[in-house]
Amino acid sequence: WITKPGSITFRDCEWVDFTHSRGPIMLDFFDIFSSNELVVTFEDCRFHDNQYFGFGAQTALVVANSDQTRMVFRRTVFDKNNMQWNNTSPESRTHVIE
Question: Do the Cβ atoms of 96 and 61 come closer than 8 Å?
Answer without folding.
Answer: yes
